[in-house]
């Protein structure tokens, strides 16, 4: 495998208030709307923040699936991914609970269209899990600083 000279990159986003439940997030040259479903007090016009976590995880796994397949000389003609997460919103609403505020469980189902054998598929899946920046952030604690500007 080729070694690449890659330096650290910093990603950033900024938000603007659209309403109490909506924010417009600027990401590079893109605008992303965030909202909550009506059940959680929003207007259901866009995914909510925890759904975007699942979107980010799915997108990361998709990109890694094809990159890793190429490295392994594995044919991969198509890829379907299903990601789901279980979350208890009690803490978010200030209710007394022992449940954590975030997902209690996330499940990933990979559905590759390939002729690869099981050994190759297992290696492929393992490499993706090891390299995914999004999975890494879900598996490991990342230092986060919150400050007032």
Task: Explain what the structure shows.
This protein is an alpha+beta fold. The protein is built from 3 helices and 5 strands. Strand 2 and strand 3 form a beta hairpin. 8% of the residues are buried. The model has no long low-confidence stretch (mean pLDDT 95).
In short:
With 149 residues, this protein is of the alpha+beta class. The chain has helices at residues 49-71, 118-131, 133-139; strands at residues 13-17, 23-27, 30-34, 78-87, 103-113.
Chain-averaged pLDDT: 95
Shape: globular
Low-confidence stretches: none
Count of strand segments: 5
Count of alpha and pi helical runs: 3
Integer-rounded radius of gyration: 18 Å
> Between the first and last Cα atoms, what is the distance in angstroms?
44 Å
Trace the largest sheet across and list its strands.
Answer: 1-2-3
């Amino acid at each position: 495998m080729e070694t690449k000279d890659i330096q650290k990159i910093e990603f950033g986003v900024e938000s603007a208030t659209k309403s109490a439940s909506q924010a417009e997030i600027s990401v590079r040259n893109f605008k992303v709307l965030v909202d909550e479903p009506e059940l959680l007090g929003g207007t259901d016009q866009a995914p909510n923040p925890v759904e975007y976590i699942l979107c980010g995880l799915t997108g990361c796994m998709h990109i890694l699936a094809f990159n890793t397949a190429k490295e392994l000389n594995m044919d991969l003609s198509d890829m379907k991914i299903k990601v789901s997460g279980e979350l208890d919103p009690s803490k978010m609403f200030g209710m007394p609970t022992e449940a954590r505020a975030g997902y209690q469980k996330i499940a990933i189902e990979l559905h590759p269209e390939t002729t690869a054998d099981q050994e190759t598929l297992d290696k492929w899946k393992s490499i993706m899990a090891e390299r995914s920046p999004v999975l890494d952030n879900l598996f490991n604690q990342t230092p986060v600083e919150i400050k007032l500007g």
